[in-house]
Amino acid sequence: MTVATLGRDDAALKIFDTGQGPAVVFQHGLGGDEAQVAQTFPASLPCRRLTLECRGHGGSNLGSKRPFSFALFANDIVAAADRAGIGRFVAGGISMGAALALRLAARHPDRIGGLILVRPAWTFCSAPENLAPIGEVARLIKNHPLAEARTTFEWSNTAARLKAEAPDNLNSLLGYFDRPDIFRFAEVLADISSDGPGTSEAEAAALAIPTLVIGNEMDAIHPLPMARTLAAAIPGAAFRKITPKAGDKDRHFAEVQAAIAAFLNSHFDIPNGASS
Q1: Number of H helices and number of E strands within the chain?
Q2: Within its chain, how far is the Cα of 30 from the centroid?
Q3: Per-residue model confidence as pLDDT tens digits over 108-165
Q4: CA distance 141 to 185
C-alpha cells in the first residue's frame, strides 16, 4: 500500500492506494477512515483500490474551508483520483461514502464506470430524518462540556430508541464522544448530517452503469428502505440484503465482501478470490 498526502487549499489529505488492476475508488462513512474501508472491501481482489480520508477523518486535517459539504468532499476525491493518474473508475463507499459515490456518478458520468453503495444513509434530499441523531450529538458537544453532553445523550429518548432498535448505531454515536478531536469534529458531524449528495431522482434514473446497493435491517441511521429506494431508482441496479452488524458482525462483513466481489467479477472481470 502507498500512502500519499494531497494538498487542497490549506488541507492535507491522506490517500491510500493499494493493489493493481481496474480502479475502484471506495470511501469511508462519516467518522470513518481507511481502516473502515479495509474492513469492508475484499482485500483479495486483483484491483486497484484508492481511498481518500476526507477532511477531518483519519490522518486528514480539517483545513479552513467551510462549510464541510458533499460538494467539497467529492471535489477532493476527484483531485485524489487525478493525482493518482486514475481516469475512469468504479465509485463506491459506505454511508457517507455511498452518497459521495452517487454524487460523483451524477457529476462525472465520463469517469464513473460503476457504483457500489453500501448501507446508504442518504437518497436525494438534504438532512434526512434518519441522520437527526448525529445532529443531536453534534449540538450537545458544541454546547456542553463533554461529560455532560455524553450523559445527556445517554439518557435521551434517541439513545433509548436506538438501544432497542439499532444497538450498533448507538455504539457508533457514543464512539464520537471518545474521539480526541471531537470538539473540532463536531463541526463536520453537524455540517454533513444537514447536507445531502445534491443528486436528484431524475439524475439517478439517467445513470447507465452497473450498480450494486447493499442494505440491512436493524439500522436506523442506514434504513433498509433507503437502500431499496436507491436500487429502484437506478436502472438495472442489483440489490443485496445482508446480515445486520448488530446481529452478527463477522457474518455482516463476510457478506458485504462477497457481494462486492461477485459484483466486480460479474461486470468488470475482476476474479473473486485471486490474490492482489
Answers
A1: 11, 8
A2: 6
A3: 999 999 999 999 999 999 999 999 999 999 999 999 999 999 999 999 999 999 999 9
A4: 10
Q: Give per-residue pLDDT as tens, 18-59.
A: 999 999 999 999 999 999 999 999 999 999 999 999 999 999
CATH T-level assignment (fold) for domain 2-126+196-268: Rossmann fold (3.40.50)
Which residue, chain included where needed, has cell 462483513? 253
Nearest to 196 by CA among 87, 262, 102, 56: 102
Q: What are the Cα distances from residue 38, in Å, to 48, 85, 97, 151, 199?
A: 13, 22, 13, 32, 27
Domain with CATH 3.40.50.1820 in the chain: 2-126+196-268
Model pTM score = 0.97
For 92-121, the DSSP string reads EEETHHHHHHHHHHHH-TTTEEEEEEES--
Give the position of cell 448507538. Answer: 170
Element (H, E) at 263: helix 249-268
- Nearest Cα to 196, choosing from 75, 115, 100, 80? 100
